[in-house]
Amino acid sequence: MTKQVEKYKGREIVIEISDNSVYSGGHEHSGGHEHSGGHEHSGGQGSQLRLAIDNRDIHIMSLSGGYYSSHYLPYEEFPSPLLLAKALIDKVPLFSEIQD
Predict the structure, then answer these.
(1) Do the Cβ atoms of 11 and 91 come closer than 8 Å?
(2) Which residues have a Cβ under 8 Å from the Cβ of 94 and sit 6 or more positions away?
(3) What angle do CA 68, 1, 63 make, to 5 degrees?
């Protein structure tokens, strides 16, 4: 399993990808479908993706062309889970406000 941790505007973003995922360096190109709890099954290979901001799992959708979206920003598409997480922090009060 690959784990990427990044701080952005004081928030901790965690992306975890199973070993058989095609995600690499902030860009994933797979055509899977997403399940509840912030986990995604990509390309029918059993690979999983987990995105969390400050230990809060984010429900994301994998779209065609290797893009991602979230119900928090339903009309926007992002080329990587990391860019999606940064947009959530920038645009959604739930993720931009410091929580104790």
Answers:
(1) no
(2) 72
(3) 15
Q: Which tens digits make up the pLDDT trace of 11-49?
A: 999 999 886 545 444 444 333 433 334 434 343 345 688
Query: Which letter does DSSP use for residue 95 in this model?
Result: H
Longest dimension (CA), the chain: 38
User: Can you list the domains of the chain with their CATH numbers?
Assistant: 2-94 (3.30.1880.10)
The residue count of the chain comes to 100
Distances (CA, A) of 50 to 14, 29, 72, 100: 8, 15, 16, 22
Give the whole-angstrom CA distance, residue 87 versus residue 79: 12
Q: What is the pTM of this model?
A: 0.70
Task: Judge whether 100 and 70 are in contact, CB under 8 Å.
Answer: no
